[in-house]
Amino acid sequence: MMTSVDTDLIRALGDPLRLQIVTLLARETLCTTHLVEETGARQTNLSNHLRVLREAGVVETEPCGRFTYYKLCPDAIAQLAGQFADLAESARTAGENKRACP
Predict the structure, then answer these.
(1) Could you give the angle at which helices 43-55 and 32-39 cross, rounded to 10 degrees?
(2) Predicted model pTM
């Protein structure tokens, strides 16, 4: 069964820094300060990337005093993995389907 891939999610994960953030959050819940230390990115730049990830449903926030912690939403990643698995399955049978040239 062929499904379309969530392009907003792909775009959100397509940036190297955002992918690094997702990789870090896959290991543990981190606050912005931790992410600045781990990535070396400036806080304002990091906040913009985190906003994109939040809007795409990849991360969610958890307030803790004056800090905001971020954690990965595994269902979003699993959904994308499922969409790619569907594409791979479709590609396996596509070799049998050859459109004739006019």
Answers:
(1) 110
(2) 0.81
Is residue 31 within 8 A of residue 68, CB to CB? The reply is yes
Q: What are the residues facing 100 on neighbouring strands?
A: none
- pLDDT score at 75: 92
Phi-psi region of 49 (alpha: psi -120 to 50; beta: other; left: phi over 0): alpha
Pairing mode of beta strands 67-72, 59-64 = antiparallel
Round to whole Å and give the CA distance between 98 and 56.
36
What is the reported pLDDT for 96?
76
In tens, the pLDDT along 17-39 reads 999 999 999 999 999 999 999 99
Q: Which helix (H) or strand (E) holds 61?
A: strand 59-64
